[in-house]
DNA sequence: TTGTGTTTTATTGCCTCC
DNA sequence: GGAGGCAATAAAACACAA
């Protein structure tokens, strides 16, 4: 780039350069002291009055850009903390106080806002990532639990089918009263495994077509074993899973402005 | 000392607001 | 239309490892 940038170095006397927006920037005396020693560096202007001292326009050696002194930066930072926008009056006051051009103060604030914004974005990213990680961890544990419950259902179903087959065989060869007694016995045994597959009311071993699940909580998120059909599986399912709801809820919580959109679409 | 990556200062061009 | 803000960018200044 560097089109139209003019540096006039006074080589210790003063300098002038033209900045954007038509602002001529006059630079004050510069020292030859090494840059690493900030405290000993001289500012662009030794005083506001120097800026308009004619002798600064005399020399025209190429100027290099110099950093603000620690004190200047400190004051600018303090001012930025109180208000990150710069109204004209404050700009003029600050410039006078610091021995800088108002344009320099404005540029400093502009760059400072840009740095602040970058940092803010980083912070937001970290927060979002932490939130995502936590949600992901929750999701993983729920999936694990779901898998565990599914295998439990499969195992219990297999046991149940075995018993039903046995009962069918027995019922062909035994009198009715013996069969009733066996059914009651079987009922008690299954109940003792901790499963809730049998109603408290009494023997209900005959396949009634009812769901194995005590309530609707699992509908839609548990895949039933082959041959076992949920009562809810009647085509009325709207296709939304439990996890979608969870994520939708989490999404709404974190991003109330995101109108119903799931988090993974952002 | 030098090469390289980062930070700071400054410019340019575009946009918005009054 | 001018002033001011912002994004993108250049380039000097600086830090630091090899």
TrEMBL record:
Cellular compartment(s): Nucleus
Domain named Homeobox: residues: 59-119
UniProtKB keywords: Coiled coil, DNA-binding, Homeobox, Nucleus, Transcription, Transcription regulation
GO terms under cellular component: nucleus
InterPro entries referenced in this protein's UniProt entry, alphabetically: HD, HDZip_class_I_plant, Homeobox_CS, Homeodomain-like_sf, HTH_motif, Leu_zip_homeo
Gene Ontology molecular function, alphabetical: DNA-binding transcription factor activity, RNA polymerase II-specific; identical protein binding; sequence-specific DNA binding
Free-text function comment from the UniProt entry: Transcription factor.
Family recorded in the similarity comment: Belongs to the HD-ZIP homeobox family. Class I subfamily.
Descriptive protein name: Homeobox-leucine zipper protein
Species of provenance: Erythroxylum novogranatense
